[in-house]
Amino acid sequence: MCERMQPRTMQPIVGCESGICARSVLEDDLIRTSVQSLLALSSPLREDAVFASLDQVFPQGPNPRTSTRILSGLAKKHALNTVLLAVSWHKINKFELNTFHYNAVIDACSKAGMWIKALQLFSEMLQRTVNLDRITLNAAISACEKGDSWEKAIQLCQAVNQFKVEPDTITFNASISACEKG
User: Fold this and answer.
1) Partners of residue 4 on adjacent β-strands
2) Mind listing the pLDDT tens digit for each residue in 116-142?
3) Which has the closest alpha carbon to 108: 159, 134, 142?
4) Fewer Cβ atoms within 10 A, N terminus or C terminus of the chain?
5) Do you find a cis peptide bond into 44, omega within 30 degrees of 0?
6) Which residues are 12's β-sheet partners?
């Protein structure tokens, strides 16, 4: 057993297997450091610097989980242009983008009011046959709602069966909200 320290209280977390804790601590540090260094490159934003930083973080190619956490971390910091550059880096290097990657980026676009970009990424998922989930659908509908595009929101809501996604309260609320604005 190992003792992992809780980040804020520095109290030990007892009862985890040593390999899992050590790996988790190292991954948490990598995520935090990567997000901070990528954010530092955001002003002024330079594509070459972002790509070089990602090359250093992932010398053998990205770990899907770590990559998702970095994209999500950047999205939470509202660094949309850096998120989009990270997605471009994945594509240029022919690294697979999965549902979780797309969800983080579509949600970031939605929150930034870039509903057209969110829908482009949604369409790209369909073209690449990446599995959609409820989070994907809700983020796309929410992007339409924020972009005052109620027609697109309704189209997405009507196509849930085609996407094989079970709608939920968030799906319907975002669609209704889009209609209220339209």
Assistant:
1) 13
2) 999 999 999 999 999 999 999 999 999
3) 142
4) N
5) yes
6) 5
Token output for 26? 């190292």
Token pair recorded at residue 1: 């057993």
Angle in degrees, 0-180, between the axes of helices 115-127 and 150-158, rounded to the nearest 10: 30
Looking at residue 34, its amino acid is S
Residue 66 and residue 33: Cα distance in Å, rounded? Answer: 12
Query: Residue 78 region, left (φ>0) first, then alpha (ψ -120 to 50), else beta?
Result: left
Q: How far is CA 23 from CA 19, 74, 89, 114, in A?
A: 6, 22, 25, 36
pTM, full prediction: 0.77
Q: Which residues pair with 45 in a beta bridge?
A: 42
Contact 151/182 with Cβ under 8 angstroms?
A: yes
- CA–CA separation, 174 and 149 (whole Å): 11
